[in-house]
Specification:
It is a single chain. This protein is mainly alpha-helical. The protein contains six helices and no strands. Helix 2 packs across helix 5. It is globular and about 50 Å long. It starts with 11 loop residues before the first helix and ends with a helix.
């Protein structure tokens, strides 16, 4: 699972890393050649345990708030790219738009999600009430 430190602001790369697992119910994609689940795993750092749930709550609140307020540029492109694994070219060809339009849309929406996560969707922080559904 992605490890995100809660004491700092979310970066764009972290948000992109979180979108795929978020859309798949909190489970990460696994490769076909990945080792079996019962194989020994590396020891985890206890200081980072439990951050996954908090990060998942942050992205959930951010996305729900943005969707409720209709502030995403194109949620369909976001879904196709991060949830279904389509390429930007496949999205552009399917929807009859230029690839640069898809790229700008994804760039804008990921930035909006990152900003919403950093603005304080965690309880007790400024702006938390505006994103709760």
């Amino acid at each position: 699972m992605p490890r995100t430190e809660l004491h700092g602001a979310y970066e764009r790369e972290q948000v992109e890393e979180l979108l795929g697992p978020y859309f798949h119910g909190g489970t990460q994609w696994t490769r076909e050649d990945a080792p079996d689940a019962d194989m020994p795993k590396a020891k985890s750092n206890p200081k980072l345990q439990g951050t996954w749930m908090a990060v998942n709550i942050d992205i959930d609140r951010a996305l729900r708030g943005l969707l409720k307020r209709r502030e995403l540029r194109n949620e369909v492109f976001l879904w196709r790219y991060y949830a279904e694994g389509w390429t930007q070219k496949e999205i552009a060809d399917t929807y009859g738009v230029n690839k640069s339009t898809v790229s700008r849309s994804l760039e804008t929406d990921v930035g909006r999600i990152r900003d919403a996560m950093n603005e304080g969707q965690r309880p007790g922080q400024r702006g938390a009430s505006k994103c709760l559904v």
